[in-house]
Amino acid sequence: MSDNPGLNSLLKWSIRNSETSRQDATSQDEPQAERDPNRGLNPEALAELMGGPSDADRMKESMAAIQSPDVDLANKEIAFDNFEQLIENIDNANNMESLGLWMSLVGQLEAPEPQMRSFAAWCVATAVSNNQQGQERALVLDAVPKLVELAQKDRDKSVRKKAVLALSSEVRNYRPGFEALIKALPSGYVPNSANLDPNDMDAVDAVITKMREDAMNGD
Questions:
Q1: In degrees, to the nearest 5, what angle opens at C-alpha 132 toward C-alphas 128 and 136?
Q2: Exposed site from 41, 91, 114, 171, fewest CB < 10 Å?
């Protein structure tokens, strides 16, 4: 086998399909079997073999556009939308660390344009949803206090709502994230916060619901 994983994938796919073709030729009288969805070539490997960009390439290109001073706001928003769709795949979300994209994403929470702050919070929400590796990265990079600041003080309602969404995903089933949230909230915002159990989903939901209602108030 080659050292190229994409080529290996292609070879295995070709062998499987050649064997299937031979079996079909010797069983013409038998009903055709349902196609195995696993027989298809991995799209990432196919893109690599055909010279197209991988998801990792597209993620880096999107973030480069988001950060570039030469890209206008409309195209930055398109790049952010593309980035969010890519990290809906949990493997891509987990590749953000090795690609050096997490710090860049968290940095966009402080962008001057509300559209960019909103997209950044949305992408954090996507990256950490049901993903402890993502939750850990967001915590390490101090995303929680930044999101609390946005949720409570940003003048744009969309930003506030997206920040609460990100916090909801960050703290769910993740004790360190919930503890960071309680620490970042103003004193007295959550009564008896010291006694809250991060594993008590009703208690977590009560905090997030209060934040969501507050975020909806104002302009």
A1: 80
A2: 91
**Nearest-angstrom CA–CA distance, 132 and 140:** 12
User: Which residues touch 210 (CB under 8 Å, ≥6 apart)?
Assistant: 189, 190
- Give which of 72, 58, 86, 213 is closest to 151, Cα–Cα: 213
CA dihedral 120, 123, 129, 132 (to 10 degrees): -70
Report helix, strand or coil for 183.
Answer: helix
Residue of 115, 114, 135 lying closest to 178 (CA atoms): 135
Q: How many CB atoms lie within 10 A of CB 26?
A: 8
CA-CA distance, 94 to 130, in Å (whole number)?
Answer: 12
- Residue-level pLDDT at 36: 47
The span from the CA of 149 to the CA of 140, in Å, is 17
C-alpha distances in angstroms, 158 versus 33, 99, 190? 50, 28, 23
Rounded Cα gap, residues 178 and 167, in angstroms: 9
